[in-house]
């Protein structure tokens, strides 16, 4: 039997075809295709005529995870901020079907050859740590892709959650860029192309019985750069910020929302960034420090910088987001645990304590979407100025949970290149997680230098 869903995808029990998809045969090995950094996971796809996609060789989904034993809970301390909550307050973070996985360290630095304001960029996705789950999987994912025909750069970070979060984020990681670049409207209307590809991929994902999305999903935060135009697409609580010169003779910067609804005003922060005061210096790599000492060269001067946030964190307790959830018969409240520590605000069904999702927008999460959790991206537009703007930072909330935009900009401002900036941020984020929560969240960071910054 064949059906047509609202996104235009034709589906059967074993195949799915999307007009926007052009999916090449791939293996389970890690590789880079057409500048798209990908990590192969359990699923295998094969190209068919008319872009039909058949899912093959995918292991059956394991049974649902049970609750953590009470003697283990006692050792968790405050380590609850990043866990999904299901019935009876069980904490779930991909605990079932544990096996040893290598840490995903996808990092790349290059100078862009495209005619845009990005001069160099780097990114990395690093697996976190949990004492009760030492072989956890990295549920984050990273995309850094170039499309030469339209001179477009596309960056995207994904933060999977739930028992099968790494499968959900991995699905979008593999398919997002290649489907976007093949979209009929990508050249003339990239905003429409991104929105339609996200919708089509999510529809295909939730219809696939081999990836259980009832209580698993992912955030998606993407930046599309073409010339001096920046489009930001956000679903969830990852974040984008831009650093700019804080000088009276620079042009004013503004961010415009092109979404149907905006959750809250943009946040602006002003800071002074100098090498002598930037705490990020203490987290530079040993190699970087030794090279700097050997060369006996002073650190490059860093003018005062300020930051403008280019996205909004979609949390259940944000007024507009909460109103939508309540209107759909959902509930929003934080869980208080036995030790009296409250977690973040979460989304619940009207009569059941599930799913306990700690964000108000996501992809997947079928149960949460029945009570107002949305998959609609919030879109923002920003115009770059080469005399004003110096770098962009895109990261999952593993970075932002305990670091402000101002602190992040300060650390990047003293780095000699994007790769050093990425390593510095991840190291500092990990340190703060261990201090505050006794766990470390998966952390994905992408940094892009603009114009003449650090040249």
From TrEMBL:
InterPro entries: PP2C, PPM-type-like_dom_sf, PPM-type_phosphatase-like_dom. One of its GO terms (molecular function) is protein serine/threonine phosphatase activity. Residues 9-20 have a biased composition (Low complexity). Residues 251-262 have a biased composition (Polar residues). It comes from the Eukaryota. SMART domains: PP2Cc. Pfam families: PP2C (PF00481), PP2C_2 (PF13672). Residues 1-25, 250-271 are annotated as: Disordered. Residues 119-450 form the PPM-type phosphatase domain. This is Protein phosphatase. It comes from Nannochloropsis gaditana.
């Amino acid at each position: 039997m064949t059906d047509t869903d609202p996104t235009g995808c034709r589906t059967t029990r074993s195949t799915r075809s999307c007009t926007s998809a052009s999916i090449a045969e791939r293996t389970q090995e890690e590789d880079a295709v057409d500048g798209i950094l990908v990590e192969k996971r359990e699923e295998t796809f094969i190209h068919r005529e008319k872009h039909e996609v058949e899912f093959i060789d995918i292991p059956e989904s394991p049974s649902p995870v049970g609750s953590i034993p009470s003697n283990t809970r006692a050792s968790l301390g405050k380590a609850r901020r990043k866990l999904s909550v299901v019935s009876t307050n069980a904490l779930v973070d991909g605990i079932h079907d544990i096996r040893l996985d290598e840490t995903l360290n996808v990092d790349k630095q290059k100078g862009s050859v495209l005619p845009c304001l990005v001069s160099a960029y780097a990114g990395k996705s690093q697996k976190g740590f949990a004492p009760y789950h030492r072989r956890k999987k990295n549920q984050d994912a990273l995309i850094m892709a170039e499309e030469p025909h339209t001179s477009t750069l596309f960056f995207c970070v994904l933060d999977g959650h739930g028992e099968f979060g790494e499968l959900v984020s991995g699905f979008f990681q593999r398919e997002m860029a290649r489907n976007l670049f093949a979209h009929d409207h990508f050249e003339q209307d990239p905003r429409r192309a991104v929105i339609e590809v996200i919708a089509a991929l999510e529809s295909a994902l939730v219809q696939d019985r081999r990836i259980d999305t009832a209580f698993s999903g992912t955030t998606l935060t993407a930046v599309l750069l073409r010339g001096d135009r920046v489009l930001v697409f956000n679903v969830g609580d990852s974040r984008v910020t831009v650093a700019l010169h804080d000088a009276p003779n620079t042009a004013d910067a503004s961010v415009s929302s092109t979404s149907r609804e905006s959750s809250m005003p943009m946040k602006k922060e002003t800071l002074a960034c100098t090498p002598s005061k930037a705490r990020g210096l203490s987290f530079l790599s040993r190699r970087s420090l030794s090279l700097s000492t050997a060369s006996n060269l002073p650190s490059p001067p860093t003018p005062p910088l300020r930051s403008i946030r280019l996205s909004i964190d979609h949390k259940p307790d944000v007024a507009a987001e909460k109103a939508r959830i309540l209107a759909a018969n959902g509930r929003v409240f934080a869980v208080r645990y036995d030790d009296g520590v409250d977690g973040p605000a979460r989304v619940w069904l009207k009569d059941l304590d599930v799913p306990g999702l700690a964000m108000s927008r996501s992809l997947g999460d079928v149960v949460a979407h029945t009570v107002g959790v949305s998959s609609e991206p919030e879109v923002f537009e920003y115009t770059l100025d080469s005399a004003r703007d110096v770098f962009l930072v895109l990261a999952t909330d593993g970075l932002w949970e305990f670091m402000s935009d101002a602190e992040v900009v300060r650390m990047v401002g003293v780095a000699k290149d994007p790769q050093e900036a990425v390593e510095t941020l991840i190291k500092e984020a990990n340190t703060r997680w261990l201090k505050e929560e006794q766990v470390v969240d998966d952390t994905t960071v992408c940094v892009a230098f603009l114009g003449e910054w650090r040249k």
